Sequence to fold (608 residues):
Amino acid sequence: MCGIFAYTGSKGKNAATVLMDGLLSLEYRGYDSAGIFLPESGNVKTPGAVTELRKKVPKEFKGKSGIAHLRWATHGEPTEANAHPHSDCTGQIMLVHNGIIENFKELKARLEKTGHIFVSDSDTEILVHLVEEHMKSENDFEKAALAALNEVRGTYGIAMQYKHEPERIIAARMGSPIVLGLGDKEHFIASDPSPILPHTRTVVFLEDGEVAVITPDKHRIFKLDSTGVHRSPENIEWNAEEAQKGGYEHFMLKEIMEGPEVIENTLRGRLVVDKGNAKLGGLESAGAQLENVDRIVVVACGTASYAGLVGEYMLEEHAKIPVEVEIGSEFRYKKPVINEKTAVLAISQSGETLDTLEAVREGKRRGALTLGIVNAVGSTIARETDAGVYNHAGPEISVASTKAFLSQMTVLALLTMFLGRLRGMTQEEGQEIARALKELPAKVQRILDNRQKIEALAKKYIKNRDFLFIGRKYNYPVAYEGAIKLKELSYIHAEGCGAGEMKHGPIAMIDENFPTIAIVTKDSMYEKMISNIHEIKARKGPVIALASEGDSDIAKLVDDCLYVPETIEMLSPILNVVPLQLFAYYFAKEKGLNVDRPRNLAKSVTVE
Ligand code: F6R
Fold:
């Protein structure tokens, strides 16, 4: 997720000021590097966010139009060379991009053959050179842009500009949001309306496969096949902060709602359905050492460690490789027995959690291969591990991790296929997992569409001070995750428990004021979970069941029921956690608490 902002006007405003002020409100979308191009003044880029860019932009940097960008790195480290705007060979065409160009390798090879020189590791740079290539035959910026867009695969929200036509900016959308701002003698392009709102409230949202051209006085929209589009402008009532949250009240809800898109982004270019395999380019550098690994030790903290536990079940059952999950804060103090045949796999959204980082360093000291599943590109854990897989979940702003957790489990499923196929997993088994993964985004969406029911349930139980979450096998870590979300956001007592452990202690707590949320979807543990629920009901404990769609019997046994779509057992946590995230969100909201910034917690825990 990156932020794009572009401006063209004839009102005498300095585009540099408009763009730089606007970038500030897009900082939530990315802050690895920033850049600005004004045809009349040039191109300035820097690692870091807007404050760094301000320091670098000279006073005389002025113009009537320009494009600007904030980057959240996906391909390539957050360096100046990888920052946007990217330029063609001549410096005449400039482009900013949010998304991922999937066929960049083949396009790059073709363009290199015709003499194009690339100066960055960014997939975006390919697109601007492609426009340059088409300019040779088309001799027209708009036609060249359209021809290039018709050749790329992947996702994009872009804005591009040609130095010799400074008034005109071209935008396009495929999977990444683009909104046009329609002002009086000025027009805007942005990733969301927040930077546009100080100037105009009249906007047009582009849809996938649409291209727009803006000049100070006009805008035009057409499809990739050049057919014209007419869309009436809308009036935005939100304020800038609401716009950043996509109209949602909190970042947490926005991030939960991004679930389907996040899973798609995590899978993009990695799933080889017909071969029943996964392509994980980031692990290539680990090569032969990875094939020799006979054991994986996952190191992670909090929510990331629960993703690791789900991964343990996936990898042991389907890839037949022993896995242990160690809490980052314990690992380096316990004299772990590991060697060069062990892979220490760190899972971290921020890539900066000190305990996880120190566990990686401990693994290195003991000769292990170190791997990472990290969301923040270029973060310390990403840099210090030998190889890894990025989540591509986009920045997570809300302190409580939600979308990153979905993405971490999705990567672990890909890793299971990848390692499994090296260790005897059949193509058919791989294909079954691949097909089920592909179906997940639509299934998550179904759960999200039903969120009012979860909100009503949170309201119903709002007076309760204690909650138990139970699950088994793949869903035992999900029970822990449901509990951590509720306690960190609502400051009440919530416990996760493997349902089979109830009889060894926790069941003593159960009475009519102590509700249990039971994950009881149709899987290999269903019958056992039903017995556990009976034991709770016999002690008058209220039970909320998280059950599979179509399971009408369960409703007769429990007090309340939430339904989720079915999937294969190993992927069920990716669906089952979503209602629990929503439950914790609505519960804390109902209590009037600061959902995005719970007390005593920080997003990135860089202290011991
Ligand atoms: C809980 C939560 C934390 C993090 C943990 C690890 O909602 O967000 O438990 O999961 O602090 O953080 P990362 O993944 O950044 O290493």
User: Anything to note?
Assistant: The longest strand covers residues 93-101. The chain has a mean pLDDT of 94.
